[in-house]
Amino acid sequence: MAPEHATVAEEEYLESLFWLFEAGLPMTGANLARAMQLSAPTVHEMVGRLERDGYITRNAGRAIEFTSEGRGHAERIVSRH
Question: Of 17, 18, 41, 80, whose CB is crowded by the most CB atoms within 10 A?
Answer without folding.
Answer: 17
